Amino acid sequence: MSSAPADAGVRTARTPVPDGRVVVRTLVSLKLRLLRNGLRRSRGRAVLYVVGAVLGLLFAALIALALALLNGHPGAGDAGVMLVGALTIGWAALPLFLFSSDESADPTRLTMLPLRPGPLLRGSVLAALIGPGPLVALVLLTGAALSGADGAASAVAAVIGVPLAVLSLVTLSRAVAAGNARLLSSRRGKDFAIFGGLLFALLIQVANVGSQSVFGKPGKNGLDLSPLEPVASVLRWVPPVGAVDAGRTAGEGRYALALLQLASTAALLALLLRWWRASLQQLMVTADASTLEVARGVQASRGWGFLPAGRTGAVMQRHLRYAWREPRAKAAVFTSIGMTLVICVLSVVQGWSSVYLVAATGMFLGLQMLNLFGMDGSAFWMVAATLLSPADAREELRGRAYAVLSYAIPVTLVLALFLAAVTGDWAGLAPAVGLAFVLLGCGIAIGAVLSVLAPYTMPADNSPMRNAAPGQGGLVMLNSFGSMFGAALLSLPVTGYLGWALLADGPTWPVLPLGPLYGALVAFLGIRLAAGRLLERTPEILAKAVER
Fold it and tell me: Which of 277, 359, 458, 499 is the most exposed place for a label (fewest CB within 10 A)?
């Protein structure tokens, strides 16, 4: 790119470009400083990080030891191949779900610096290898290589293949992150992370059920790994899986095929590095399209016709917009729905399904009333400025409760019909719906009270993977478990009657009218109690909301 000619008497100055070795050292030291400063933010966070890393390494070591002990068993190499395949999928998907929570994976933070792509790539590769993730991958891949190893040739191939596979996995993860950096840092990208995370969790549960069907049936000579062979026979030729399986191939005397597996992984690594470098170069020289768009006129909101009039309807509309547009609010809503869906699907697959599982919907969606004002962040001062009377406080809380009910009720009814159709227990549909509604109403009551009495600070960024600022773990636990146990205790009159009716073969249909009525009464009382304390606690809630 040529520079524009300078005016007469004015000398142009170029920004000096740092030496490549300096850039590499700086990026590596920056990653170390990010890890260190992250641990220094709070003692609790440091303890959780260390404990999590140690437990992760121990768990990985146990899996690797189990694979090593399988050596010589028929199908042991297939088990190692399946593990490497799962790791490859996980490392490829990781940046799509956790991109916004890993600052070192976001290359757009460096776009304003005068950096060449080559040194930036080398420094990013070395920085990406720092941390517990690559170490856990190294341990697991070593166990996978040992599962099929046999002789000195296998050892030589494993010494080359395992580090090559680790480097390929790390490069794959960062290349995916760099290639989709601007998408993943946008609101649509965060929405994708939410839905993708729920789908990924569901797939993990499906894989868990499948693994139980494979490993839960011992064969004549012990563990039967034969069902893995068809899939493993294809995966072992896919890089970087082939680099780890090269040890088994070399141990069988097929040296040419082992070299081919290693070469294919090396070729993949070269292609990933080229893609990563091209993505970094494009990010450095291309402006973000979102900054070039011409500002468009914004139409004034006219409200939604089906909402209540007055402040209650306005609050309801604002809360629903948060639930759809704000990544953390959307993550909370869809995680609650997703957890219920996972439970229902697993219960159907494993054969223990019941229509009463719909009660989990009322329990989980009732959690959406927790920390109502912490989610507002610094914008809560605009709400606080309008809370002038107890009536204002009641309408504020009532509007938020109505917003939660607007999506909780349809979801509950749909899931109840699904479970009744799957189980054939249409007689239990009415009491199950009543049970879900009483838990939902009690959860709304407890959530409103805890939002006023025990608010906590949300992080400054909009990452859907972080729901509380550092040091707020105790308050988060108090809100979550307090809401669930409180809702269970408050609903005892209805749940107690239902339990008696089921045990004594009494009528269960009264739970359908009793549940919603009792839940509505408890929710009304809870909102009224919380509104009475909201005005006097507004300054403290505001301090929590704006704290970062």
Answer: 499
The pLDDT confidence band at residue 528, using thresholds 50, 70 and 90, is: very high
| Cβ partners under 8 Å of residue 462, min gap 6 | 100, 190, 326, 327, 328
Cβ proximity of 356 and 432 under 8 Å: yes
Query: Angle at Cα 370 formed by Cα 440 and Cα 45, nearest 5°?
Result: 135
What b/e string do you get for 427-452 counting C-beta neighbours within 10 Å, with b at 16 or more?
A: ebbbbbbbbbbbbbbbbbbbbbbbbb
Q: Which of 411, 373, 201, 172 is nearest to 268 (CA)?
A: 172
Distance between CA atoms of residues 395 and 516, nearest Å: 21
Q: Report the candidate in 58, 57, 80, 78 with the shortest Cα–Cα distance to residue 68.
A: 80
pTM, entire model = 0.57
Place of tokens 């040419």: 256
In three-state secondary structure terms, 128 is helix
Residue 544: Cβ within 10 Å count: 21
Flag whether pLDDT at 191 surpasses 60: no
Token duo for residue 485 = 């146990």
CA distance 459 to 466: 7
In the predicted structure, residue 529 carries a pLDDT above the cut 90: yes
Q: Tell me, what amino acid is at 146?
A: L
Three-point CA angle 245, 248, 254, nearest 5°: 105
Using CA atoms in the order 520, 523, 366, 406, what is the torsion angle rounded to 10 degrees? 60
**Residues 240-296 pLDDT 10s:** 999 999 999 998 889 999 999 999 999 999 999 998 888 888 777 665 554 444 333
Can you say how many angstroms the Cα of residue 279 is from the centroid of all Cα atoms in its chain?
25
Q: Taking the CA of residue 275 as centre, how many other CA atoms within 13 Å lie in the half-sphere pointing to its CB?
A: 17
Strand, helix or coil for residue 223: strand
Band of pLDDT at residue 548, cut at 50, 70 and 90: low
Structure tokens at 403: 């917003």
Name the residue with higher pLDDT: 360 or 105: 360
The residues facing 222 across adjacent strands are: 219
218: enclosing H helix or E strand:
strand 218-219
Sign of CA dihedral 81, 83, 84, 89: positive
